[in-house]
């Protein structure tokens, strides 16, 4: 299963999420995340945060994935 995930490149999960990429060296699925809220019976986007852009030092050194 691990090797299968490590072949994903720009895989579209749907749901408005960014495409997912896994590699043998990096198991972080994406550089950002979407913030949503449930309103009026459906999910609505509130914001998108690019973690790599906002915290480049932590992205490169601390948040390496598993």
In short:
The chain is of the alpha+beta class. The chain is built from 3 helices and 2 strands, in the order αββαα.
Which labels suit this protein?
66 residues, alpha+beta, two-stranded antiparallel ribbon, 3 helices, 2 strands, 26% strand
Overall description:
The protein is of the alpha+beta class. The protein contains three helices and two strands. It has helices at 2-5, 51-54, 56-61; strands at 32-39, 42-50. Strands 1-2 form a two-stranded antiparallel ribbon. The two termini are 14 Å apart.
Q: Gap between N and C termini, in Å? A: 14 Å
Q: Helix and strand string, N-terminal first?
A: HEEHH
Largest sheet: 2 strands, antiparallel
Number of strands: 2
Overall mean pLDDT score? 88
| Cross-sheet strand order for the largest sheet | 1-2
- Please give the radius of gyration in angstroms: 14 Å
Tally of individual helices: 3
In the predicted model, the low-confidence regions spanning at least 5 consecutive residues are none
Taken as a percent bin, the fraction of beta residues is 25-35%
| Secondary structure category | alpha+beta
């Amino acid at each position: 299963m691990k090797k299968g995930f490590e072949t994903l490149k720009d895989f579209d999960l749907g749901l408005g999420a960014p495409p997912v990429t896994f590699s043998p060296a990096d198991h972080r699925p994406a550089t950002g995340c979407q913030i949503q809220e449930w309103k009026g019976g459906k999910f609505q986007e509130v914001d998108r945060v690019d973690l790599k852009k906002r915290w480049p030092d932590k992205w490169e050194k601390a948040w390496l994935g598993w």
